[in-house]
Design brief:
This protein is mainly beta. Helices cover about 10% and strands about 55% of the residues.
Length: about 70
């Protein structure tokens, strides 16, 4: 059987470290799932998930979204 599961995710990342063109940051995401009644006995009525992470990237990438049309 196939079931449609919807997921709603919100998150935040904060860069807090910069050195020689490298940025470091931490962040978190929270996901809330909307699941069909048929599978709720297995997953609960409102399953959620959370993740915490560390990110390292090039400082030149930090302005990429600002330079993209439509962003």
């Amino acid at each position: 059987a196939n079931f449609t599961v919807r997921a709603f995710t919100a998150g935040y990342t904060r860069d807090f470290w910069s050195h020689d063109g490298i940025l470091g940051g931490i962040g978190a995401n929270l996901t809330i799932y909307d699941i069909p009644a048929a599978i709720r006995p297995f997953y609960g009525t409102r399953p959620i998930g959370a993740s915490f992470f560390v990110r390292v990237r090039s400082a030149s990438d930090s302005h990429m979204a600002m330079n993209m049309p439509g962003m």
